[in-house]
Design goal:
Layout (H helix, E strand, L loop, with lengths): L1 E4 L4 H11 L5 E4 L17 E4 L7 H9 L4 E4 L9 H6 L3 E3 L6 H16 L2 H9 L17 E5 L3 H12 L3 E5 L5 H4 L4 E2 L2 H7 L2 E4 L13 H6 L4 E5 L8 H10 L2 E6 L21 H7 L4 E3 L8 H19 L10 H6 L1
Parallel strand pairs: 1-2, 1-3, 3-4, 4-5, 6-7, 6-9, 7-8, 9-10, 10-11, 11-12
Helix pairs in contact: 1-12, 4-6
The protein binds nicotinamide-adenine-dinucleotide (NAD).
Length: about 325
């Protein structure tokens, strides 16, 4: 099947071409993101393959529909960038890769927590400059701390288990609690209690209307002074302006982000020779207790191989008129 691949980076091409040796699809790679300006590149392609910052809003979906596209194959787990109501009305089949390596994201989450707890981002630079002073590097033991996990699905549950290995007490909130985790001493509590009790809060729920700006002025007010906040899920779970105010006041003691609500204009590109215009993002970078990575939590060898293989499995199943293993079920997705 002829597939238009958007937001292609050299590594996407490498992994997809390698996996495609077992599938034999006709893959056509486009560097731009899919937006209303670039949608015409997909004209005549029955399938498009997109990533986290491609825009599948009503305008783009209508264009794709009119130009003959039937399958939207997301090469990621989240689908918040797709207008599902419109996609359903237009009869698109939408597939995704619900699980490729939850371990990759869970491990990156732990990397952010540990780096912030031990100020590794500061000491890395200091030692390179011959500065071996310890002032400002005072760390925090994870042992004995309370970690709050919002969303205990595939990624959140692995983060919970890893934090328990560091002797944290884990409290969690999920609209659908996991019985197995509860039997492992994870204590399910309400949102408010989680915010009040946690020394570390890490977000692993999807971005849906109910979770948009879940971290805001009001929820930050409930948290402990000096709380560590981690977001490797989706940027818009966090109100960035409120977070900046909380960093300035000391309410947030450490912030680790792999995602940012306006990341589509920044992430995955080398902007090192440009003046970055996003003042909110740049303000966050000025704090000594903030680490930001550019949506790299998923980016491991294992995960990239699995994403490529599972994306192409979805395309093959669609071509054969079988149910794709990663079929997005509208009713469930719209209800969440
Ligand atoms: P998942 O669907 O397995 O788990 C999500 C969990 O959140 C579920 O248990 C669900 O019940 C729960 N949930 C839903 N609504 C909630 C709410 N209002 N409050 C609390 N919990 C709620 O998803 P996953 O595979 O664990 O992925 C979690 C998120 O991680 C994804 O939505 C995606 O946005 C993000 N992600 C990021 C990266 C990255 O590279 N940074 C990679 C993969 C996934």
């Amino acid at each position: 099947m002829k597939v238009a691949i958007f937001s292609t980076k050299p590594y996407d091409r490498e992994f997809l071409e390698s996996a495609n040796q077992s599938f034999g699809h006709e893959l056509v790679f486009f560097e731009p993101r899919l937006t209303s300006q670039t949608a015409s590149l997909a004209n005549g392609f029955p399938a498009v393959c997109v990533f986290v910052n491609d825009e599948l809003d009503a305008r783009v979906l209508l264009h794709l529909h009119r130009s003959g596209t039937q399958l939207i194959a997301l090469r990621c787990a989240g689908y918040n960038n797709v207008d599902l109501q419109v996609a359903e009305q237009l009869g698109f089949v939408v597939t995704r890769v619900p699980a490729y390596s939850p371990q990759a994201v869970a491990e990156h989450t732990l990397a952010l927590i540990l780096a912030l707890a031990r100020r590794l981002h500061k000491s890395y630079n200091r030692v390179r400059e011959g500065n071996f002073a310890l002032d400002g590097l005072l760390g925090m033991d994870l042992s004995g701390k309370t970690a709050g996990i919002i969303g205990t699905g595939k990624i959140g549950r692995l983060v919970a288990k890893r934090l328990m290995a560091f002797e944290c007490h884990v409290v969690a909130f999920d609209t659908q609690p996991d019985e197995e985790l509860a039997s492992f001493d994870v204590e399910y509590v309400g949102y408010e209690e989680l915010f009040r009790r946690s020394d570390i809060i890490t977000l692993h729920c999807p971005l849906v209307p109910a979770t948009h700006h879940l971290i805001n002025e009001d929820t930050l007010a409930l948290m402990k002074r000096g709380v560590m906040l981690i977001n490797t899920s989706r940027g818009a779970l966090v109100d960035s302006q409120a977070v900046i105010r909380a960093l300035k006041s000391g309410k947030i003691g450490a912030l680790g982000l792999d995602v940012y609500e306006e990341e589509a204009d920044l992430f995955f590109e080398d902007l090192s020779n440009q003046v970055i215009q996003d003042d909110v993002f740049m303000r966050m970078l000025t704090f000594p207790n903030v680490i930001i990575t550019g949506h790299q939590a998923f980016f491991t060898q294992n995960a990239m191989e699995a994403i490529a293989r599972k994306t192409l499995e979805n395309v093959t199943a669609f071509e054969r008129q079988e149910e794709p293993p990663g079929l997005l079920r509208y009713r469930e997705a719209l209800a969440s």
